[in-house]
Design brief:
The chain is α+β, with helices and mostly antiparallel strands and 315 residues long. It has 2 domains: 2-71, Winged helix-like DNA-binding domain superfamily/Winged helix DNA-binding domain (Arc Repressor Mutant, subunit A), CATH 1.10.10.10; 82-296, no CATH class. It has 13 helices and 8 strands. The strands form 2 sheets. The chain has a 6-stranded mixed sheet. It has a two-stranded antiparallel sheet with strand order 1-2. α6 packs across α11.
Length: 315
């Protein structure tokens, strides 16, 4: 029991240290929900948080939030984060209403949202129908360009970054994780589905059950209905009609292959080179299109490990 108590204390501190990298204090419920590597009842965790002399030496508390000693300034930043996240969701809802008639789209989710700032761009994950990933990406990017919504080199604030597309037959992402890929684990559990007419969010989580071995108390998100963009009758009719049109045009996968070759021809050489290196930053195939040229997972992992060492050594 004492050993388990110590493991829970250690895991609580490890979880808080990770989120401290992003200036993100946690409530007791958030600590429990995102606790790394240990399963514990919420009541037991709260009792340990309140009584642990070890944690009292390492942590401070303000209102409902727990954070590392001397980091009370990040509590106010949490409020700014919530406001920024809400702003991004409202913008994404408007964007989705410009693309959700595309029959290839199965789900659109907000990503990287645990450290959004007001001037951040908006990262999204799009799940597509099988053998529709290139076609869907082409029309999504085209519409974003037409409405000046896509991120540009010198124009990023509140612009859409469509850098991650998944085919519905490739939902399991465990094979693209790195060793001790802490950032990816929390990227996955923090996804917010904003358009999900066929409940692909739960299909996606079911395909990635490995996450429950890392974050044992994790529960799927229960979304506020106000966050979800729904298909009205007109959109359902349009999607049905376009589905017939695209199915005809894509007979024998002709349109998909054509749009794939077109996009590959225009794709920057450095992206294709990174994909050839198979370093999991950039992935280009008929099932996954991941264009994270500036993939910072290794950076955050190394920063986290360094910060952990510092915090545990402090007396």
């Amino acid at each position: 029991m004492n050993n388990n108590h110590h493991n829970i204390e250690k895991s609580i501190l490890e979880t808080i240290v990770f989120f401290d990298i992003f200036n993100y204090p946690l409530t007791s419920f958030e600590i429990w929900k995102y606790l790394f590597g240990v399963r514990v009842d919420l009541g037991d965790l709260i009792e340990i948080l309140e009584s642990s002399s070890f944690l009292k030496k390492k942590l401070d508390r303000q209102d409902a939030y727990f954070f590392l000693k001397g980091r009370s300034n990040i509590v106010e930043e949490k409020t700014r984060h919530y406001l920024a996240q809400y702003q991004k969701i409202k913008i994404l809802q408007k964007v989705i209403r410009k693309i959700y008639f595309l029959p290839g789209i199965q789900m659109v989710a907000l990503c990287n949202n645990f450290f959004y700032q007001s001037k951040s761009d908006i990262d999204i994950l799009i799940i597509t129908k099988t053998k529709n990933i290139w076609m869907t990406r082409f029309f999504v990017v085209l519409i974003l360009h037409l409405f000046n919504l896509r991120i540009q080199e010198n124009d990023t604030e509140n612009k859409i970054c469509p850098s991650f597309f998944l085919s519905e037959d490739a939902l399991d992402l465990e094979n693209i994780t790195l060793a001790d890929d802490y950032y990816f684990y929390f990227w996955l559990v923090y996804l917010i589905p904003v358009y999900d007419p066929r409940n692909y969010y739960h299909k996606f989580l079911d395909a990635n059950l490995f996450i429950k071995k890392k974050i044992l108390n994790f529960q799927p998100r229960i979304n506020n209905e106000k966050l979800i963009v729904e298909n009205n009758i007109l959109i359902k009719v349009i999607r049905k009609f376009l589905d017939v049109i695209f199915s005809f045009l894509n007979k024998n996968n002709i349109l998909e292959k054509f749009l794939k070759n077109l996009q590959l021809a225009k794709m920057p050489k450095n992206l294709k080179k990174l994909a050839e290196e198979k370093n999991k930053k950039v992935i280009i195939n008929d099932h996954i299109l991941k264009f994270h040229e500036n993939d910072r997972r290794e950076y955050y992992r190394d920063l986290y490990i360094k910060k952990l060492d510092q915090v545990f050594l402090e007396k």
